[in-house]
Amino acid sequence: MEVTVLVPAHNEEQTIGQTIESLLAQTRQPDQIIIIANGCTDQTVEVAKKYPVIVMDLPRLEHRKSEAMNRGWNLYGRDSDLVVSMDADTVLVPNAIEDWEKESWKRLFGGSTSKFTIRQPGLWCRLQKSEYAYNIQQGLNHGWTNVLAGAGSAFSGRALREIAARDDREGPWSYESAVEDYELTYRLREAGYKTYVSTTIRAYTDGMKNLKSLWGQRMKWQTGTLQDLLRFGVNHLTIRDWFSQMLNLLGPAIRALWVMVISLALYLDALTLAWWGLLVPILFMAINLKTALRVPYKDKWDILIVVLIIPIELLACIRGGWILASWGEILRKKITRKDRDLWAAQYKAEGVEA
């Protein structure tokens, strides 16, 4: 079996080395490691060339990551049996390629994604780590995933060739979607392939270090997902995603209603303590604690965030904010008929040159 790894990179001089080293330390070595440098203005290319890998030094591409992936795939991955996609700030455990190769023999295998986690300190990174753990557990419980995250996933070569044969693209990755990972996973499932969360493969990735960068990242993810959902419509493949969108709005709404009721009771001097009044915060605390206990590499601070309830509940309200804002972005585009560069907005939020 021929295994090709594609690593798109944009100004990743600080992390590209450890990403490549994790690939070179695999128990099953990939046959090709392709570093696709997309418009880098730092030392990413120079660092990558120190290793036994193929480096594509490309100018700034119009369609950014998805175009970089298509160029790498068309040149080096088209005939591969297994194609691994990695971000340039991701580190894979040593058994990843070997286990993905074994998983690829499953019937109708379309792709498998890693169990992602963040090991950076700081409140915002810990909150994201809890989020990742919850989403991963949901995928494991369901036995499938709706997103094969490009940060660390493996794809069937045959399945990618089938998707690439569509008339609306020049490779497996679409230029119409701001969330190319979600769109590709949907197309694989639409074609009858299975997409999984691996039970044995973990990937370590960087988180957003502050609210500004987190908001920029999630606005791109959320707006891009909504755009895709509106294009795909409601069907058996998207119904759970539409339901999830509603739940993400309902959670903050319930919290806001609870606060309003308590505030109104205080204003009217009619607040009385009753056990049922604590049901809502106790319920959310129990759900959050259950998730926290599943977080890998957890420590006392991860548990404390849940016990204090305020930080993680604040994130839930902020999540509702970027969901509402993403619907506003969809409406703005509908009215003005002008696209907004969501990648550029994310780079700006992170303080990275676009």
From TrEMBL:
Top-level taxonomic group: Bacteria
Any one Pfam family match given in the protein's UniProt record, by short name: Glyco_tranf_2_3
Signal peptide: none
Keywords annotated in UniProt: Glycosyltransferase, Membrane, Transferase, Transmembrane, Transmembrane helix
UniProt-recorded Gene Ontology molecular function terms: glycosyltransferase activity
TM annotation in the entry: 303-325
Similarity remark: Belongs to the glycosyltransferase 2 family.
Protein name: Glycosyltransferase family 2 protein
Organism: Arthrobacter zhangbolii
